Amino acid sequence: MQSVTRQDLLDTALEKLADGTVSHVLGWSRGTFDYEATPTLFSDPDTLRTAFVWNDFCGANLSKYLIKHTRRLEGRLLVFLKPCDTYSFNQLLTEHRFERERVFVVGVPCNGMADPRKLKAQADGILSVTAEGDTLSVETLYDGTRTLAVADLLEERCLTCKSRRHAAYDLLLGEEGEVQDSARFDEVAAIEAMSPDERFAFWQKELSRCIRCNACRDVCPACTCEQCVFGNPSSGVENKAASNEFEEKLFHIIRALHVAGRCTDCGECSRVCPQGIPLHLLNRKFIKEINENYGVYQAGAEVGTRAPLVDFTLDDPEAETVVRRGDDA
Amino acid sequence: MQVKEFKPLIVAFCCNWCSYAGADLAGNNRLNYPAEVKIIRVPCSCRVNPTFILRAFQRGADGVILCGCHPGDCHYTSGNYYTRRRMAMLFSMLDYLGIERERTRVEWVSAAEGAKFAATMNDFVQTVTALGENKRLEDLRCKA
Ligand code: SF4
Ligand code: SF4
Ligand code: FES
Questions:
Q1: pTM of the model as a whole
Q2: What is the ipTM of this complex?
């Protein structure tokens, strides 16, 4: 269960709309099912009152939508950001994607979001989902009403949450949390410990499932180029034309490199991948390497910091040393 | 049946100001390095986008080496420092994906180091020959 209620968020949004602080509100509304919450822009209080949702399925990070809407609209936008979303927000500001003054950030605490995939794996034919304290009451077509603990349904990224403290806000609802000492690099270390052939097989199995829908790119707050190489038909990487081992990897290597040093580890890519590919394991590999070789760096912790790959020191380790380090282990 | 001897295709990106001149010097001094090495001249090692390296593999290279000025000597003062971080990241990702890391290398070769250039290329070609054909980074569409 979330520690602030829908009513708390709604009251804030209505108040800021009414007193003219903001002209629009960026929040979530119900998707096709109860376990889906879709990013939505609200401009009138009545729609907000009826359609706005805040529940255990509000995983979607709203920060990237600010680019589109600040360009399209006049006035100031209110946006609800969970702690991990605020890192993306700062990173977007660092990259000058929109102006800070155009946005009113309401920080909302987060106790972790539920993964619809995990929910669907546990309950077939879901008709409705209602939150009841720390559990969800799930009405199903075949199996009556089931009660499931939210704690058992948490998204992977929430199990290794890096921070419950907001990196930015104008107004904070509820209690502020702390930066977490999460075990988010353990899985990366486990892959590093495999033999090269095992690693190759592992990634082959994962990445060959990619259908090149580009959802991971579209959702990523670090992927904000207006023209993307993956949309260029003469780039040779724009679609999945050949199903050989290389083609399956190329897209992912390029994308991970493109966001290396700027990826805040928000986990949106893994959340939206329809094929369930653990994309965060690619991004975290880079974060881990950067932390170990160039000093600990968290993208989006502050505005205006220099990303590690557009920076250097005179005594950085050589590429050979960085890669060979694993041998001694 | 006769087995055709495997000759690797090596792409060497060389920065114009140091390594390319180093290759030239190797030639002037009549130092041998294998003909399998195809040099692509770039203005600075920093010009090499990681995608260039991936693309070389895609088009059939068996090994890719990037040569630039020694740290501190870059014609544009700091290009090779960026290269160093960028390539460290690219190589560690290839390694993470289980792709032989010996197929990629960065070497700093100055204009005065003709001998180092030749020795580096000889060594690299040997390493890649031992690894055999590039299978994990090939694109069948690009193969004749
Ligand atoms: S690569 Fe994934 S985790 Fe990183 S910023 Fe983009 S969506 Fe978030
Ligand atoms: S979201 Fe998943 S399936 Fe779609 S392009 Fe990204 S990795 Fe591939
Ligand atoms: S000019 Fe040689 S590395 Fe930059």
A1: 0.93
A2: 0.91
